[in-house]
Amino acid sequence: MPHFDPQSALRHAQKAAQWAGLRYSRESTQSRAVRNDAPEKNETTREEGVMCEVLIDGHFGYAATADLSDTGLQRAFDQAIATTNATSGHKVHAFSDAHRAAVQGAYESPTQTPLAASSLALITECLLTASKAMAIDAKVVNRSARVMVIQAQIDYYSTNGTHTTQRFDMVDIAVAATAAEGMQSQTRSWNHTGQYGGEVFDASVFAQQGLRVATEALELLAAPNCPSGTMDLILMPDQMMLQIHESIGHPLELDRILGDERNYAGWSFVQPTDFGSLRYGSPLMNVTFDPTKQNAMASYAFDDGGHPARREFLIEDGVLKRGLGSVESQERSGLPGVANFRSASWNRAPIDRMANVNLEPGTSELQDMIASVEDGILMSTNRSWSIDDYRNKFQFGCEHGHLIKNGKLASVVRNPNYRGVTVDFWNRLGAVGKDEATYGTPFCGKGEPSQVIRVGHSSPPCLFRGVEVFGGQS
Ligand SMILES: [Zn+2]
Questions:
Q1: Closest CA relative to residue 229, chosen from 430, 413, 378, 418
Q2: Which residues surround the ion ligand 1 when the cut-off is CB under 5 Å?
Q3: How many other β-carbons are positioned within 10 Å of the β-carbon of residue 1?
Q4: 3-class state of residue 294 by DSSP
Q5: pLDDT tens digits for 194-204?
Q6: What 3-state class would DSSP assign to 345?
Q7: Is 29 exposed, middle or buried (0-12, 13-18, 19+ CB in 10 A)?
Q8: Ligand 1 centroid distance, CA of 450 (Å)
Q9: Distance from the CA of 353 to the center of ligand 1, in angstroms?
Q10: Which has the closest alpha carbon to 458: 249, 183, 305?
């Protein structure tokens, strides 16, 4: 890095601001893709810059720059100061520097081998191995394997003595096989996403997963369409992830409840008066915000306002306790929240984001949950979703369905879907598995201007009683 002096820039800002903060971030993303045994993409993007933040007259304001020189940083602070002076007369709340308490600390992703040591040759070999492993039948017409390798650093400094540094190693792997015959096609996929190092690039795992998804895509192609009706539903963790994300994570974001996102990402059915009393789900439902989850995509020690992050219960024994809102939203709403003030890039101001939101494991074995179902279906892996802008009525589709008859897995069905209304659905939670799995995505969108950010979700398999299930176009 060339000359970079955050303290000198902060001293400059302090001449005109009550408080100033500076967030430096640097990120490199390598995207590799192979399709039908041919390398298709080999792209690296890098970004680096600083977000300058000031507090004037109880109002926070921002300006960003990619010019890290003293002059560049001072210019950005001058711009943040001018903008904040001009807009503080319209502030929605009066804040103080107590909302940016001083902290020091560091965080590093828990990797076994450094991501930086994974060669392009090794990654390409894993992707090619997956692609070749999917070539088991001429009906498997699309065999894709891709990986994103992300290395990020976020350092935060402030005039009241904050200095934190965090380094993240992340991977997002997706392997998918599409089988087609006539007008019908079916896709089966495998995703592996989280804070990992080079240990994930094991060609034998890619071969095994490639063979599995191709085999299951062919099985789905030959399977009957999912029947329609009200039945018991078991969701595997790779669909629970989406169910948690859309019907718990987004509706509990306090900025949505306050109306900030109404224009773009939507509002929430949750009212401020619901905290402490709303029976969100059955007593088996325990949901946490957990930035300490090992290897989860959105684990961190401090959010982008320097607030120390810790595990908190959002929903306990089915009752709504806490929202997904940062210090500023907590102050505005008077509601309890979490450290989730996060930005997607150096050039974006932080907003409330869900980060890791998990359904805590219960006590049931999957086989016992299946055995308890007379007439039902087990669904895996999200394929499609639709939910209203209050996060209330939803309709989700999965890649794979397995009917359950008299306590036993029966035939595989294609195009399985289910629908529900959030609180009614979660109150149908009849059993929670004991073994969890962790999934995530780098692609949760929110905010104007748009911010695409990383989230993680852990969950065991879960059983819901009496859900409306239906098939697709056959
Ligand atoms: Zn999202």
A1: 418
A2: 444
A3: 7
A4: coil
A5: 999 999 999 99
A6: coil
A7: middle
A8: 12
A9: 9
A10: 249
**Predicted TM-score of the model (pTM):** 0.97
Phi–psi pair at 433, nearest 5 degrees: -65, 165
**Domain-by-domain residue ranges, the chain?**
6-221, 229-470
Whole-angstrom Cα distance, residue 247 to residue 396? Answer: 11
- Residue 324 CA, ligand 1 centroid: distance in Å: 13
Tell me the residue type at 360: E
Residue 5's contacts (CB-CB under 8 Å, 6 or more residues apart) are 70, 73
Residue 428: left (phi > 0), alpha (psi -120 to 50), or beta?
alpha
> Could you give phi then psi for residue 27, rounded to 5 degrees?
-150, 135
* Calpha distance 474→469 (Å, rounded): 15
Query: Are 404 and 412 in contact, with CB atoms under 8 Å apart?
Result: no
Tens digit of pLDDT for each residue in 139-185? 999 999 999 999 999 999 999 999 999 999 999 999 999 999 999 99
* Separation between Cα atoms, residue 139 and residue 218, nearest integer Å: 7
CA 454 – ligand 1 centroid, Å: 9
> Residue 200 gets which letter from DSSP?
G
Tell me the fold of 6-221.
PmbA/TldD fold (3.30.2290)
